[in-house]
What does this fold into?
Amino acid sequence: MYKIETPETEADFDVYFDFRWEMLRKPWNYPQGSEKDEYEQVSEHRMIRNNKGEVIAIGRVHMNNSEEAQIRHIAVANEAQGRGLAKMIMSSLEAVARQEGAVRMVTNSRELSTPFFESCGFEVEKEASAELGKLKRQQMVKRLLEHNTILLHPKWCKELQDTWHDSIPISEQMGIKLYQYSGKTLENRASLNKNINLHGTMFAGSIFSLATLTGWGMIFLQLKEKNLMGEIVLGDGNIHYHKPITMQPRALCHIESLNGKFDGLSKDKKCQIKLKVDILDGDTAVAEFSGVYWILPAEPEIQDDIA
Ligand SMILES: CC(C)(COP(=O)(O)OP(=O)(O)OC[C@H]1O[C@@H](n2cnc3c(N)ncnc32)[C@H](O)[C@@H]1OP(=O)(O)O)[C@@H](O)C(=O)NCCC(=O)NCCS
It folds into this structure.
């Protein structure tokens, strides 16, 4: 399970900048140190490590002025590309930009990474100055409107949220909303105010509900992706709470945490899927949920109804 980290210690920053140099400067024979610029101190940095503790993804954002955020130095290790890690980093940087009041994000993208930025909602605006004197770049812009977070398959996302609100009305009272679905990561958010306890933090039972619904929702979306139907039920769930939530409750389920096969459903057999959900307060990891879900084959009459 991948976690987004904010480098804090000198040792964190050493490995963070080493990775930036390895990925974005070394291949063009630039010396160590050339990966840094004058905005490091005023930037927010994010990184992801693998299970050996090695940095495998990074990214940075800083404000150009009160309305404009600039994304720079996003990179993912070659062997970890294509798993949604850059998109995880981007969504964390975008959250920072929105929190800072940015109404648009800009980036100067190398030609090879333009499709990645397009998939995150950026559009090419014009040609930018070449990087390292030779790499052609495009200036790209994403306007930060209220509803343009990364949302793949918006119809399925709406159906999922409507299903929660119709069949589990308390989810609406808790202010649980699908925030982002990239195909690989599902993020849901809840309102702190609606779930507050006497300590001014989020009620643990609400955190558990947010986690179980996020796991449920991820399976719902995977069934859609695979064109399968089934009834999803929670068989077992465990949560470890490390810290209280005092700001912004977020729950993230990444596709790589899913363990189990959906194949049986097409043969009318039930399937078991295990998964993990990370609970964050803003960008701080505060709890971990592990769930075991069962998917029961859809009843024939239900299939008729839907068809
Ligand atoms: C660009 C880069 C950061 C993307 O990292 P990644 O982890 O592979 O990206 P993700 O898996 O998060 O991909 C997210 C989306 O971008 C799309 N994407 C990524 N690279 C793509 C490419 N070369 N062509 C088309 N689409 C691409 C994916 O299809 C995916 O879309 P989806 O979610 O709709 O399926 C990575 O390729 C990289 O580090 N490149 C070298 C460094 C670099 O050029 N950085 C940019 C500096 S400007």
Q: What stands out?
A: The chain has two domains: 4-143, 154-306. The pocket of coenzyme A is lined by residues 23, 74-76, 81-87, 109-110, 112-113, 115-116, 119, 182-183 (CB under 6 Å). The domain at 154-306 is CATH 3.10.129.10 (Thiol Ester Dehydrase; Chain A). The longest strand covers residues 284-297.
